[in-house]
Amino acid sequence: MVQAARELNPDLSARHRFGAELRRWRTARGLSQAGLARLIYVSPDLIGKIEKAERWPSQNVVERCEGVLGTGEALSSLWPLVNAQRRQPVEPAVEADVAPTDHWSRLLTVLATAGNAVGVGRMVDVVADELRIIDRRRLIAGERANAFSQIEARWLEFGSWVADNGGDRAKAAAWLLKAGALADRAGDPLLGGYIMMRRAQRAVDAGDAHAAVDLAGAIQLEQLPARIRALSLVRAAQALALTGDRNTVSSHLRAAHRVLDHGYTDEVDASLAGHCTHDYVRAHEAHCRLLLGDAVLAVEGYRDVLAGWSEDQRLDEGLFRAQMALAYDQAGMREEADAEGRRALTLGTRTGSRRTLATLDQLAERRGAAKERRREALFLTASQPRLGEGAS
């Protein structure tokens, strides 16, 4: 007797969602599990277990299934989330008594770490899918609505960061505003402060000094733990650098280092702002020097901090190297600017960072490059350095 296919709830986990999606495409193409297995050179048992969420699909299997079934990117777009879930220490039983918000918190941490290490790729779609599920759960959560508001706000903030790096600034702005509203609704000043800091960062990126100063000034620093407070001080310094206020810029940066040395921190602080280290602050100090027109000091700062930069922070490294290339150019060191521009272009392309590439476009515009040539004409050469090469 043929057994009925196991019902899958795609909302339970990324692995369940992938299994359901694979089954849907396979049956739509009129293939049995054995038939698909023959086409991609695996056992029918493996296909069955993947569809039942009992085995993890490998990236190679995902790609071969997608090619055979002609899904476009329906399966590969789920891979980052599946891979992130697989890297969690223990797969959460979200259908049991374990809080589903804990599951999404852990998953978010893994995705954020992967994003800075290897890039944002297709993460915008992955985040959008998760947000639809979280939003549905929040609307029916009853007494636990506050917890779902907090986790949705954190995913929205992360999504805005992904969208900014992916070049969708409109989506990034909308998600960040909704994140702030949900954090306020949940009565979470820590998360609200972090989101306000991110809004100030976006204003700095846009060169809007007035908005950046106002947003950074509205952050209630005394309510924040060490790393988020340090980040907020860095944003205030960058905002003031846009106005030319050298003395206050230096004061805020010194305060950021002191807070990292002596301020309290907690688990939420570490999960949201674990990337904020003394090296991170020093890199942004170099950016402040660049904004203030002190190109030589900016170069020295970037060279010093990037010499020992962590390989787990490739997304940030690409942006800092692009800024260093701009500083070199402003200092009249064109060969060094080109060499650093090539390194930044390598990182920006591999991590999908539009922020890095937009900074290189600023350098291309300084050189008078035509729009159709832009950064590639200036920096993409046959002698392009390997990803691991350091600063010159």
Commentary on this structure:
The chain is mainly α. Among the domains are: 1-87, lambda repressor-like DNA-binding domains (434 Repressor (Amino-terminal Domain), Orthogonal Bundle); 277-392. 70% of the residues lie in helices and 0% in strands. The chain contains 20 helices and no strands. The protein has helices at 14-28, 33-40, 44-51, 59-69, 79-86, 100-118, 123-139, 145-166, 169-185, 189-205, 209-217, 226-243, 246-262, 267-273, 278-291, 295-306, 314-330, 334-351, 354-366, 374-379. Helix 6 (100-118) runs parallel beside helix 8, helix 7 (123-139) runs antiparallel to helix 8 and helix 10 packs parallel to helix 12. The protein is globular. The termini are far apart. Mean pLDDT is 84; it is low at 90-98 and 381-392.
Quick tags:
20 helices; globular; single chain; 392 residues; 434 Repressor (Amino-terminal Domain)
Q: Summed up, what is this model?
A:
By secondary structure, the protein is an all-alpha fold. The protein is built from 20 helices and no strands.
Helix-strand topology string: HHHHHHHHHHHHHHHHHHHH
* Major sheet attributes: none
* β-strand amount: under 5%
Average residue-wise pLDDT:
84
Helix % is 55-70%
| Oligomeric form | single chain
Helix-strand category: mainly alpha
Low-pLDDT stretches? 90-98, 381-392
Rg (C-alpha, Å)? 23 Å
Distance N to C terminus: 69 Å
Instruction: Provide a count of the helices.
Output: 20
Coarse shape: globular
Counting DSSP E segments of at least 2 residues, the number of strands comes to 0
